[in-house]
């Protein structure tokens, strides 16, 4: 899940980071497959997704992968990662989510309310039920069942299109894979298999099966492996023949130009759920290791597909150039995966398995997955992990009725489009995106009915619903804003931060400076180039230091003394600014730690944290140290500086509730008697902290959690603790954490030990027992189900029937609520799983096995090409090309690939982790294919490398001041349009911004336009004009009877003069660059949905930005010491800062799976 509302805050604050199209030169595509599995299998907004047959879910997953590959077009690497077992800290969040899926709010312990909000009472439901008789309710249920059945039979919802074969059990699995004559001999599966498939299809889909160790995830892995194999084989055959494996030779003059498949020559790394680790962290481990070797950076951008906000933090922690995050908000590729082209979908129609389907043009409810040859087919029937493949063959081998001949998708498209048909006669069909789809053989060449094509043969168009986040733009914008805040607040660096070794070392151990504060030669050179290249993310991080180089002898202390004074934002170590911002983001909450009590991203809390960080932490150095550590003295400064902000938030709520007076709240004492009485003690008592002993334990664990999460984000999975977890549901108050750290003494870094590194992950079955509710007991082996349904005494708390849910600060969203489940007894669960290990079947033992390797799949031609390219690079043949690529970035939107056959494809994985795979270890789906090669990849610690340097010159709205005194105006995020995002939002590292020059020029022009037409103070102008006009009318009316009277005439002229003076005064206010609205002069880069106020240093009162002085103590605004407080323009309900959490706590209970609504 990541950090709620964090991505929305970023896109509103930095719209330039959002791109509407993918860069042309993509080195690798990295897919977190769980982000595709969930929307393809269930949906909160569309219950029919879960009702689809399992085979349709598998087909959607394959089509979603294909849509990503076709859209992104990676040149070298495709990494597909599935979530494996997660660290203990992550299991708490997984456990809460799965129990909420199986639970419902209770008004009492025995009366669950299904499908309703927690605010609905049983009395309301009972009153509604009394309005209907039993007969009426029975009739309504029958009607609903008929509608449900009609939807199930509808082709658009996974039905069979009404054909006779579609109604048979298992018919939804037909036509998934093309099969040969050997497989057609095995015409029918046993009746028991069909009956089991029919029974499974009638059960409600349990989304908790998307967990490591389940048979469903084993099937997903088998399906994806087979799909990848077929794509590689088809791509290689197409590359050899020119038009694909089914194409006939044709005259060169008549054939349309061929475009190679985007799968051609790709090196594919597939990590299934049997390999421990979350999918996004597997991707980061690969990138972190490979980017440490020369010639990896600068060869193209790296596109990571996923929706979790964690990906943003993880991508920033890499500190490598040209990382792009792909996010699919619309998920149209999944919704349309089951629709024919005629209905706006991506699936080409085929002649189905019935006469009715063939006559009407409907698609059978089948399509996608099978084995490739007879050997693989036999293995699939015998292997449980490929049961879904075996079910396919039962329906696929049945000849089409009435002698109809199945055709390929391209032939159906040929029949529908005359112009396309003319091209198809010559062997290939040119589709919209330029790719070619093979045409079928002539009818005379067929001696038997042709089976339906595999899903890998389906053509998928590039998606236009994707959104791309440019991490180069984001990183440089964040560093630039910190720099501008440092200047705006007039901060100065205290002493010399480089005297502290922790400020000189990167998180991975790279030392930026030599003794005496001198930068290394490479770091100094890179720092000098930040204004010209760091924004694009090119040369500074293009070649990475392996840690073996030494600075030249000419570098001396004299040179160091001549260098400008150290500034944390402009130095070669400014990547640590990004590391610090990642640590600040932990206060927003994540999958491992709860958010700080007053920190809500929806209220622009990150802006307040940046203000506190710049004023209280950065002048003393960085927040992060070396070797994946956090400087605890700096962490104490952060919490102590944020404590007044937290106090004023709670005091505001207490004043609104009538518990405190403004005078009581106006005090510098952070924990006064009034504070304890009104909110502090209430928060402790009504949360999981309970008492003062709990507060101290929570403070210790919360600090440990910061250190754990930072190591988890910045290191590899081999170097984190798999057993640590935060043992509370709520976070301690900021002042309590600061006091706890101060009580440890000046050597707090040595006094508080980091979490112990436990490198042994739990088994998949142990994790299933930990995270699954009893209603999902069918997902575990039969030997373990009784312990879940009727747990022994030591496991009663592990499998609760009821639990509490805290909705405080959840914005009314169930997924943002705090689930107060008892923590699972993991040691006893692990012992239970081990005790029953002897009763596991062979298939269950395979599901419970843990691997430390990832599967690497390559075509033999791609491996040869990659090896040749690696040899040429090692010989120095590509040195000049690499240097040019680092210095000159290709223009955005301009495809510089050239012909695909002229550029070496594939990727040679560096390091010692790649090992050959034994024949018996090759998955069954890949054993019969001789044109591909399989290897195993083991994660290894990456070599030492220097992080990139970020630009600090990106203009920041409302903060960057131009020479003429104007400021860069704020820019709204561009709106969507048909076919992508407006041009204004498509700015990134490829578009220019050389040293901030283009952005600076654009911002300067916008500032000048803003200065020529400043905002008018319309209210003041109108009021002055109306008052002057009324006075003039009154004087004129009184003197209208005697206009010759000199005194009255004088008064009239005076009134007219007053009108003129009033208008001049109003116009002066309207055009003044600084009027009364300037107020305190507080300038911050805040989003349009948030207010920016300031906190008085003397009494801690919050004041509006227009106030020059505090409205309580009349102290003036101090730009250096006063903190900017950000808040949303409309407060959510229930209020966020209510310390009494018991008022928003609801009891939930287990709901039987069969009684839940689909």
From TrEMBL:
Where does the record place Low complexity bias? 525-541
Pfam family of the protein (one): XRN_M
For this protein, the parts annotated as crossing the membrane are 1016-1037, 1049-1072
Q: Which domain of life is it from?
A: Eukaryota
GO MF annotation, one: 5'-3' RNA exonuclease activity
Cellular component aspect of the GO annotation: nucleus
**InterPro entries according to UniProt:** 5_3_exoribonuclease, Xrn1_helical, Xrn1_N, Znf_RanBP2
Q: Which SMART domains does the entry mention? A: ZnF_RBZ (SM00547)
Q: Where is the composition biased (Basic residues)?
A: 975-986
- Tell me the keywords, alphabetical order: Exonuclease, Hydrolase, Membrane, Metal-binding, Nuclease, Transmembrane, Transmembrane helix, Zinc, Zinc-finger
Q: Which residues form the RanBP2-type domain?
A: 1090-1119
Q: Which GO terms describe its biological process?
A: nuclear-transcribed mRNA catabolic process
Stretches the record annotates as Disordered: 396-416, 525-563, 961-999
Annotated protein name in UniProt: Putative 5'-3' exonuclease
Q: Which taxonomic lineage is given here?
A: Eukaryota, Discoba, Euglenozoa, Kinetoplastea, Metakinetoplastina
